[in-house]
Design a protein that fits this description.
It catalyses: allantoate + H2O = (S)-ureidoglycolate + urea. It comes from Candida viswanathii. The chain folds into 2 domains: 178 residues, Jelly Rolls (Sandwich); 149 residues, Jelly Rolls, CATH 2.60.120. The chain has 1 helix and 24 strands. The protein is globular, with a radius of gyration of 21 Å.
Length: 340
Amino acid sequence: MTQVLSQDQFQEQIVSQYTDVIGEKLGGQILSYSDQWFADAENLIKPKAPIRDATRFTYAGAWYDGWETRRHNEAEADWVIIKLGVSSAKLIAAEVDTAFFNGNHAPFISVEAIQKLDNDDLLSVKESDWETVISKVECGPLQRHFFSRGSLTSKNYTHARLRMYPDGGIARFRLYGEVIPVVEESSGEATDFASVKNGGVAIKFSDQHFGTADNLLLPGRGHDMSDGWETKRSREPGHTDWVIIRLGAPAKLQKIIVDTAHFRGNFPQKVNVKGIKVDEESKIDPTSGDWEVIVDDSKTSADKEHEFEVKDTSKVYSHIKLTIIPDGGVKRIRAFGVRG
């Protein structure tokens, strides 16, 4: 049964534990849709918050930063199909934002998914193949809605379908789950276990004022400072900022890369990296003395990939902690190793 959560509950139970697997910044793609007359479906998965310009009009009508279909839909619902930005994922929750849609918002939504590992050709997919993730639930105007199914799906999916009944507008759509890589890495090959593509999740952080910590785990080196992790300027002596990352699997680490791409006047003065192996994630304490140093305090510089060799490659870690001294911005962190 679909559960409706508060924003605080959603942040604690979902955002800090799972990954938005359809986001544009992760590689999610809009494959098809029933209609997109007033506003394009591709807006649904854009990373930035929606905006509004009431003075702006297009050929189709008033401009909206979201997905909006024509009125008077004769079918049961309008729909959009999205390819996940990861190879597959077990799903648990969704956020549906109707920001700026008032009188033209989607009255109800549902979310379905399908597992199609071979290709994106959905012509052979039957209606009965779609499996419910979030059952039909009511939406209101001008607000963010937080829906959970309570537990992960038993199957890992590759594509999702958002339906709105019967038509209307939605500004943004987020779909959260646990990344399941389809192809298992060879035990002899080094894998980036921090990568979101391999199941890495930023579970805790000290601050993310200018850029969110989950950006650290994205593929590529990004396009500007907006898609990295950046904290406020600190004013207290001895201040540091940090982020804790759950690796995609417990691993013996061999190499750490800290990338300051695009951070030219605001990169950290130094960084260090520590690791820990725990069975109960809820007991992780950022200040605990159980953290083991993987990378000592190391000077960083602007717009550069900094590569650090791990001295002891025999130890297994489930989580790593990146500390920046005293504050600043980092684009990516990579943690290469083999399964432990």
